[in-house]
Amino acid sequence: MVSQAIEAGINLFDTANNYGGGRAEEFLGRALGSRRSDVIIATKLGARTGPALTDAGLSYRHVIASTEASLKRLGTDYIDLLQLHVPDPLTPFEETARALDHLVQRGLVRYVGYSNLGDWQAATFLATQRQHEYAPFVSAQMYYSLLGRDIEYGVTPFLRYEGLGLLVWSPLAGGFLSGKYTREQPKVSDGRLTSFDYLSLLLIDREKGYVVVDKLRDIAVTHRDATPAQVALAWLLAKPYVSSVIIGASKSEQFADNLAATNLSLTTEEIEALDTLTEPKPLYPYKWQASGGDHMVRQALGMR
């Protein structure tokens, strides 16, 4: 599948040091082999990787040790994008930022990013990096899908303001938006949601999910040979603040289906229909900020 991805023009591979107890990095490094310089490797650290108290978190010690271990498993001498996997409330931002900068200065890491931080955490961390002239964040890897648009409240405005890229994880909500889960057949033998309650983790309303999948099917019918998964991915790719979408296909057929989404162009009406159907509920203070500014000035400038 790695070869299939490279042949299709994909050059970004995302993993983490705790996936499969580190074996995911080993397999990726082995599969890339001599083609390593042709691709971008993104990995993550911070989640627990061992039994010791120090085998988790974003301390200077753990960040350095985890990165050096990832380099060995990946069989490479540098990581293109190193990302903080989870927040660490016990370690000061300055300490973690110093560790990341040290890795960049040593040439072991090219760029740094984060995953799953709140907007205030990311903004404060970035300010700390700039204050000390450390290597700054360039990207955020966040959960985003038609069934999970919470990052539109504060995260995406922050990313757009700062010019950071957005990598989307679980774009199909754990496979639910593939369309293989239905009201009549809520469980699938080879589906991820059957063995792991991903929907609860992502705070997804299953009934609302069925309504969204029905709409995806309707739109797919209007596009020859399209599938619900392709429509869901095409909706994400149409967002101007989305830099890349991380797909987690486990079969070559799934990969080929997902890849076809890059050739699917949704109409403005179809995008608006999906936007309206899944629009996040108004939330203070974001709702107020969206309509901020003097109404006369906004009207004079032609602003909505």
From TrEMBL:
It comes from the Bacteria. InterPro entries: AKR, AKR_Detox_Biosynth, NAD(P)_OxRdtase_dom_sf, NADP_OxRdtase_dom. Residues 1-277 form the NADP-dependent oxidoreductase domain. This is Oxidoreductase. It comes from Ktedonobacter robiniae.
